[in-house]
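A.,

Following up on our hallway conversation. Structure tokens first:
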């Protein structure tokens, strides 16, 4: 997306692989979500914590992602999520 600012988020807990990582991210825009975003990595950031997850679906303004190795997805408002565009620590 042209004109969208990319920033770094550090100390992101990635429970999917059991690591702490740093990611290059951009804001997640709900209206732009499409089938290609299933499986994309997002960072949930709220109340001083940051966690990496994998998008599984979205509905009614909520985006659902898995934040661990399990099968359960958690919903979050799109405004609390960032789309990962790169990782300092390797591939997301």
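Then the amino acids I'd put at each of the 92 positions:
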């Amino acid at each position: 997306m042209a004109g969208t600012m990319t920033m770094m988020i550090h100390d992101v807990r990635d429970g999917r692989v059991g690591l702490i990582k740093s990611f290059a991210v951009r804001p997640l825009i709900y209206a732009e979500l499409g089938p290609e975003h299933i499986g994309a990595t997002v960072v949930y950031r709220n109340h001083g914590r940051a966690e990496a997850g994998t998008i599984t679906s979205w509905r009614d303004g909520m985006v659902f992602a898995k934040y661990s190795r399990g099968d359960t997805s958690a919903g979050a408002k799109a405004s609390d999520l960032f789309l990962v565009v790169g990782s300092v620590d390797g591939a997301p």
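The chain has one domain: 7-87. Curious whether your intuition agrees with the design.

B.
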